Amino acid sequence: MHGHDALAAGFEGNTPETLEMLFKWAEIIVCARDKFLKEIPEPYQHKVRICEVGRDVYFNPNPDLYDKCKSWVKSQEDLCLVS
Q: How many C-beta neighbours within 10 Å does residue 32 have?
């Protein structure tokens, strides 16, 4: 995504203070599963987009996951970040 900073952050391994800082900082929060929406505090839920990729069965790097995510971004007309 050109001209944008993207950070990966999980609920495990990050302190509540770090997550709060990231929720405030983010313009858009992308969750890889809809079940994670309940973990996002209410004041930030309006920033959430769900890119449903299913269970974490992917290894790094994974072309199938990359293609799935790239297609999802292209489907988000208001993002227009991927050429």
A: 20
Q: What averages of pLDDT result for each successive group of 10 residues across the chain (83 residues)? A: 76 93 93 92 95 85 89 80 47
| Amino acid residing at 34 | D
Predicted structure pTM score = 0.78
Tokens of 42: 């209410």
Question: H/E element holding 64?
Answer: helix 63-75
CA–CA distances in Å: residue 21 to residues 24, 39, 56, 73, 78: 5, 15, 25, 24, 25
Supply the DSSP string of 29-69, one letter for each residue. EEESSGGGGGGS-GGGGGGEEE----SS---SS-HHHHHHH
What tokens does 8 get?
């990966």
